[in-house]
Amino acid sequence: VLQSSSLHSSSQHGFQYSRAILVENELFLSELRAFARAKEAAGYSQEELQETFAFLLFDKEEEAQQVCQSGLRVNSSNISTL
């Protein structure tokens, strides 16, 4: 999934990943579902409501653990490498 998710095909083989972890946080998922319901009620199309994924690149495992515990909010982090 990581290799095929590159926006540019030239980037697909430019990274080596040692480990990827899928984090599922029930609180965050319920917030996402509520957000999607509100957008659907506001008339957003199914295409606009379709989920997409992004991958964050961390320098230290501790940074990743912090995001997994507290979430990632707009303007709440200096993480800038997607």
TrEMBL record:
Cited Pfam families: DUF3715
TASOR pseudo-PARP domain mapped to chain residues: 41-82
InterPro entries assigned to the protein according to its UniProt record, in alphabetical order: TASOR, TASOR_DUF3715
GO cellular component: nucleoplasm
BP term (GO), one: negative regulation of gene expression, epigenetic
Protein name, per record: TASOR protein
Organism annotation: Prunella fulvescens (Brown accentor)
Lineage of producing organism: Eukaryota, Metazoa, Chordata, Craniata, Vertebrata
Gene (UniProt): Fam208a_0
